[in-house]
Each structure stands twice: as structure tokens, then as C-alpha cells.
Specification:
251 residues; hydrolase; five-stranded parallel sheet; Hypothetical Protein Ta0175, Chain: A, domain 2; alpha/beta; globular; 2 domains; four-stranded antiparallel sheet; Rossmann fold
Length: 251
Amino acid sequence: MIAFFSDLDNTLIFSYKHDIGEKKRCVEIYQGREVSYITERTYGLLKYAASRLLFVPVTTRTEEQYRRIDLGVGVPSYALVCNGGVLLINGQEDAGWYRESVEMTADCQDELWKAAEILERDENRSLEVRNIRNLFLFTKSRCPEESVDRLKEELDMNRMDVFRNGVKVYALPKSLNKGAALQRLREKVKPEQAIAAGDSAFDLPMLAEADVGIAPQILGKCCKPEGEIRLMEPDRVFSERLLEFVISSFL
């Protein structure tokens, strides 16, 4: 069995703000609006791949946000949400996995509280500070670079990671990463091989932990991915390129 661990946003699915062509289908509706899409070709490729390997969505989205997505390929046997802190098995949360995640991040709770205090008094903050399942913090900032710099100055960066994604700002324990989640699930289901795909700094630990990582070329320009990484040229939608590679190379 081959396991395919894949990020969702900007890897398989894309916001309405992105131009992915006219041949697309809606995969997420929020407050009555169509907000995320997948190309028709990606849908066909994913449906084929998911029927022949173990497809595992891996996302920083909360469980509630993840459940808004319908890729049209059925409920995955396994899905990792909350940056790997929560495991869904056939759509149902695994309580034991979450308890382990809380234990793994217990030594960072003081840093999460400190991060919350820093963000609460941040004049650039444009959204309430959200504590996601006592695992990590999330908010938005009018000047995310300044918010991130302030967090990095005041937090123990030996224990914490700070990321920005557009206007979104995250503070997470280093132990709560997608690579650790891949390793934990790999020990649980024991696939012969693990492939991973992602497009951002959140995905780097997962790409490094997999036997083969797949990322858009731009990620290689702004970061230095470790491990065996295949960088896809930006000549077409990333989701199509990566799925064509997975199918031609592993199926």
C-alpha cells in the first residue's frame, strides 16, 4: 500500500481568488458562497489516484473548516486536521490521537499563553485570537510581518514556530507539525511508501518526512526543502502536475 499525504489549500484546491481556468468545480461553500474550487482534470486524476492508494488529506484547517470541503472522492479513511493534531478515521475523530497531541504539546502551553497575550495587545491584529483545541493559535493582522517579528522576539523559538500565510498569523509548538503527524500515522497504518505534497512552510516537515515530497517550484526558491523533493514547474496548475507525477510514478 502506498500512502499519499496531501495538503489541501493551494495544493489540491484553490480559493475563488485564484484563476485556475474555466473548467473547474466547486468543492467548498461557506455562508452560501462558493469559496474553493478544484479543476476538472484534478478531480479526475484525484478520483483515479484515491481509488488505488491511501489518500490522506493533511491540513491546518480546523475540523469544522475541513468538513466544508467535498472533493467528490468519498470520505477518506484517514484525514489529519489542525496541522496534524486531530485524526479523523472514516470521518470520525480519534480521541486517543488527540490526547496524544495534547500531551506532545503540553510543555508549550505557557508559550501559547504568552503568544496570546502578545497578539491581544498587537495594534495590527484584525481578528480575535483563536485558540485551536489548545494546540495552536491563529489570528489575522493588517501587518503580518510585524506581528510575526514581535512573536519571534518574545517567544522561545526553540519550542515554538511562527508562520504567516497572507494576512493570517499562526503560533504553534514545534512538535505540532505535519511531518510528525505523517510519522505517527505511518506507524499506525504501516504503508510501504509515503508520498507527500504541499506548497507552503507548513508542509516542509511533511515533505521531509515522506519518502518522496512534491512541491511547486516557487517553494524551493523561498525555502530549502530537505529530503527527496520533486519541484513542479509552474506551467500548469500545481494540483494537476503533482497528480500526474504520482500516477505515472507510483501507480
